[in-house]
Amino acid sequence: LASSTAYHDVLVFYPPYRGMGIAPKTLKAALDLYDRVGVVEIRLTAGLSSGGSVWSKAGFVPVDNQERQNIYRKVKANLKLMDKRGELEIFSRLTGGASLVELVTNIINRDSEYSVWELRDLRPDLPKVCDRDGRSLGFGAALMQGTRWEGYVDLENSLMRSRLELYATSA
């Protein structure tokens, strides 16, 4: 193998095939292949409509600080949209007065390589909200919706690897 990095260019599942566990199964098969041929890093562009949300759930992180800052700008814009739809008030009621804005601000201020995971994983126990297209999303997924960023997973990093494997076997 000339390179130890794999690049995922495009992975799209059309609406009738979403939510069926196909993406995790596809990623699991790729991961098995990568292990056999010595790939130690996977890179991609997280984007399209839900890619930024899905790939952070799968364990990918932005390649650098510039990408994280771009994500934070979009997350802040998503917070404003959620406020207009009344979802910040719903979050507060469901959590006994917690402020989603404060939670997000604290995560952004910590500015960790893994901040996208924290944002994506916010309160999965709460009922779903609807995005601008009417899809049901958790609060974290709604925050990450529409983000577009260059990301990677280091397969030799046990934290990244375990998150990716958890996602890949979730189907």
How would you describe this structure to a colleague?
This protein is of the alpha+beta class. It has helices at residues 22-37, 51-57, 65-84, 87-94, 100-110, 115-120, 139-144, 158-168; strands at 5-8, 41-46, 61-62, 129-130, 136-137, 149-154. The strands form two sheets. The chain has a four-stranded mixed sheet. Strands 4-5 form a two-stranded antiparallel ribbon. Strand 4 and strand 5 form a beta hairpin. Helix 3 runs antiparallel to helix 5. The two termini are 30 Å apart.
Write the layout of secondary structure elements.
Elements: E1 5-8, H1 22-37, E2 41-46, H2 51-57, E3 61-62, H3 65-84, H4 87-94, H5 100-110, H6 115-120, E4 129-130, E5 136-137, H7 139-144, E6 149-154, H8 158-168
Helix pairs in contact: 3-5
